[in-house]
From TrEMBL:
Primary localization class, coarse: mitochondrion
GO cellular component, as recorded: mitochondrion
Family recorded in the similarity comment: Belongs to the complex I LYR family.
Pfam families attached to this UniProt entry: Complex1_LYR (PF05347)
NADP among keywords: no
UniProt function note: Involved in efficient integration of the N-module into mitochondrial respiratory chain complex I.
Keywords, in A-Z order: Mitochondrion, Transit peptide
Sequence ranges assigned to domain Complex 1 LYR protein in this UniProt record: 39-95
Cellular compartment(s): Mitochondrion
Species in which this protein is naturally found: [Torrubiella] hemipterigena
Name used for this protein in its record: LYR motif-containing protein 2
Amino acid sequence: MPFTLTRQSLSASRAFATSLRGKRLEGALSLDHFLQRTKVVSFYRTILRGTRRIADPVTRAESRRYARDEFERHRQVTDISHIRYLLSTGKTEWESMERYIDGM
């Protein structure tokens, strides 16, 4: 028996979908927030990969701990301009740290 949509079943399915929409989108990120989060996660991974080049295990662990603490400290920031500022500042700091690591 093929399934046919009646006016009543169509109306019920629309009402159900509409009721879910608000619940699904409550915690959703905006596109800009999603893109910034992607950049932040990518930057964090870059730092972790870069710290592999540090020969001293204590210094390597300390550098990773510092990076993790900084990211955790700013975890609740939601203002896009502030996120961009933090990302820019972090990249500048990391570039200077990389020069130091490469000189070791």
